[in-house]
Amino acid sequence: MEVLKTRLAVGKTGQYSGVIDCGKKLLKQEGVRTFYKGYIPNLPGIISCAGIHLAVFERSKNYWLENSAGDSVDPGIVVLLGCSTLAHTCGQIASFPLNLIRTRIQAQAYSTGRKRNNSFYHSAHSGYI
């Protein structure tokens, strides 16, 4: 779905009539492998985002319970929402570079006559150096 979303976003107006048309055209023109472009940099992004989210959420919740809750063991919905917001923000900041690389790899298939290198290394190198 990420590849379809990216192609629909960067495609010319009227190039695809919808998600199913986009999928059919990509399958016919580029084959099955096109749906897995950006898969490798996506895995570390998911793992790092989830790990950071869990660690920051638990750490901030426990900090609040130890320092501000008194005898209460229930942090309440507002504190949980704040901890979750902080955790999600930290996870997204940490994993954004990998998401950017994934999107570049998925969008690189359109090239005007010239062959492009769709590797993880090439995308990371050209995007950050």
TrEMBL record:
Signal peptide: none annotated. It is a multi-pass membrane protein. Belongs to the mitochondrial carrier (TC 2.A.29) family. It comes from Equus caballus (Horse). The gene is LOC100060536. The keyword Transport applies. Pfam families: Mito_carr. It comes from the Eukaryota. This is Uncharacterized protein.
